[in-house]
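Residues determine shape. We examine one folded chain.
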Amino acid sequence: MIIKLSKSQSILEYVAIVLVVAAAMGATTFYLSRALTVRDRHLAQEMNEANR
């Protein structure tokens, strides 16, 4: 019974690690997406000001 509890615990630990890594990757993707959008917007504004 103790061995089964240990296996269940290790499986839950792996699931928790996978969830944390997935959340971190999602947050990183969101952050990079927003950063690139803002950078693109700033470059477009600079080009519009240069064409005036």
